[in-house]
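Revision sheet: structure tokens.
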Amino acid sequence: MSYDEKIKKAEEIIEGLEKTEALSMDEYHRRASEASALLKECKDELEAGIPHVS
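Predicted:
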């Protein structure tokens, strides 16, 4: 998955969490963890100087 795809997916997950009230804590945690992992990958790429196209 590209840098931009990871950012977009993380944004979609976060927006969904903000809009959805009927999630179990387990599902909320799963989705938040997925977004966190995607953002960490993006951060790691930036820190490593891996080029990405916006």
